[in-house]
Amino acid sequence: MIAIGRLGLGLCLDVSIKRASLRPVPRQGTLAVAMAALSASYCLTLLSFIFFFSSGILHCTEARRFSLCSQVSKELFDKIFLHKDDNACPAKNFYTYDSFLNASKFFPKFGAAGSSATRKREVAAFLAQISHETTGGWATAPDGPYAWGLCFKEEVSPQSNYCDSTNKEWPCYPGKSYKGRGPIQLSWNFNYGPAGKALGFDGLRNPEIVANNSLIAFKTALWFWMTEQKPKPSCHDVMVGRYVPTKADIAANRTAGYGLVTNIINGGLECGIPNDGRVSDRIGYFKRYAELFNVDTGPNLDCENQKSY
Ligand SMILES: *[C@@H]1O[C@H](CO)[C@@H](O)[C@H](O)[C@H]1NC(C)=O
Ligand SMILES: *[C@@H]1O[C@H](CO)[C@@H](O)[C@H](O)[C@H]1NC(C)=O
Ligand SMILES: *[C@@H]1O[C@H](CO)[C@@H](O)[C@H](O)[C@H]1NC(C)=O
C-alpha cells in the first residue's frame, strides 16, 4: 500500500516539474502560473488522499479489523483519550491504540452490527464506559472532566478482595485480589474466572495479568461488553437493538439505552438513585464521545428510574 503512495508521489512530482520547466516565456505568465499552481494543488490533494487512504488500509489490514479501525482512527482515539499518557496518570503508556485494535480482533461483532450510526454509537458507548471506569478527571480538569479516560490500570484503594466465597464454580485462590483491573475494571472471582477461561489465561490464579498486559486488559473489557451473563443481557445486544426485555425487565423500567448498559456494569451500586454523580460522569463521557463520533446518543441515558439486577 505504501508503494502505491510513493508511486503516486513520484508521478505527480514528475508531471509538475515537467510542466514547470515547459512553462513558456514570462509574458504569457499569469495563466500558466495559475494553471501550474492549480495542478500542483490538485496533485497535493490527490496525494494526501492516497496517502491517508493507504495508511489507513495498511493499519486496518494489519489489525484485520477494517470496520472498527475505519470508525476509530488513531487520530480520533487520541482526541478521545487526551490525557491517558500524562505523567499524572498511573496507566501512562499502558493503553495503546494498537492493543485496543488487536483485542477487538477477537470480538469481530463488536462495532459491526447494524447501521453506521448504530456501530458508531456502540463504540462510543463502550469507550465512554471504560473511560468512567478508569477516569482521572475532575470538575475543573484541563480539557474538562471527560478528557481523562484510561488514566488508571487498577483500583487504588479496594475495600476488599472482591472474593465471593459462596461461588463454588470460580473459587478464589488464596491471597489473590479480584479488585478492579483494566479498562472495564474487571472485578470479582466470578468475572475473572470466566473471562480468563474465555480468553486463555488463569483469571483466578493470575488476576494481575489484567493490569500487566494491555492486550489482555482490552480483551477483558470487550469480553465483558460482548458476553451475556443472565439475567443480564450483554451491553453489545443493548446498544445494537437486540435486547428483548422480559416482563420483569419492563416492570423494572429496564428499557434499552446507555442507562441500561450502566445498569449491567454497576447497577447494584448506581441505579435507582436520583442524580447519582457516577451515573452523570458516565453520561458526560458518552455525550462528549458521541459528538466526536458525530452520532446521536439515543434515548434513556440514565438509570435513575431503573431497578438493578
Ligand atoms: C498488534 O498486532 C500487530 C500485528 O499483528 C503486532 O505487530 C503488534 O505487536 C500487536 N500489538 C499489541 C500491543 O498487541
Ligand atoms: C503486575 O500487576 C501488579 C498489580 O496488579 C503490580 O503490582 C505488578 O508490579 C505488575 N507487574 C509487572 C511486571 O508489571
Ligand atoms: C419506573 O419509572 C417511573 C418513572 O418513570 C417510576 O415512577 C417507577 O417507580 C419506576 N419503577 C421502578 C420499579 O423503579
Word description of this protein:
Keywords: Chitin-binding, Disulfide bond, Membrane, Plant defense, Transmembrane, Transmembrane helix. This is Glycoside hydrolase family 19 catalytic domain-containing protein. Residues 89-111, 216-226 form the Glycoside hydrolase family 19 catalytic domain. InterPro entries: Glyco_hydro_19_cat (IPR000726), Lysozyme-like_dom_sf (IPR023346). With 309 residues, the protein is an all-alpha fold. The chain folds into 3 domains: 2-63; 65-152 and 228-309, Lysozyme, CATH 1.10.530; 157-213, Endochitinase, domain 2. 53% of the residues lie in helices and 0% in strands. The chain is globular and about 45 Å long. Bound molecules: 2-acetamido-2-deoxy-beta-D-glucopyranose (3 copies). One 2-acetamido-2-deoxy-beta-D-glucopyranose binds next to α5 and α9. One 2-acetamido-2-deoxy-beta-D-glucopyranose binds next to α8.
Q: Overall pLDDT, averaged?
A: 85
- Supply the helix-strand structural class: mainly alpha
The main sheet comes to: none
Q: List the ligand species.
A: 2-acetamido-2-deoxy-beta-D-glucopyranose
Instruction: Assign an overall shape.
Output: globular
Low-confidence stretches: 1-38, 52-58
Taking the alpha carbons of the first and last residues, their distance comes to 50 Å
CATH class of the largest domain: Mainly Alpha
Keywords: Chitin-binding, Disulfide bond, Membrane, Plant defense, Transmembrane, Transmembrane helix
Transmembrane segments: 31-58
GO molecular function: chitin binding; chitinase activity
Organism: Carya illinoinensis
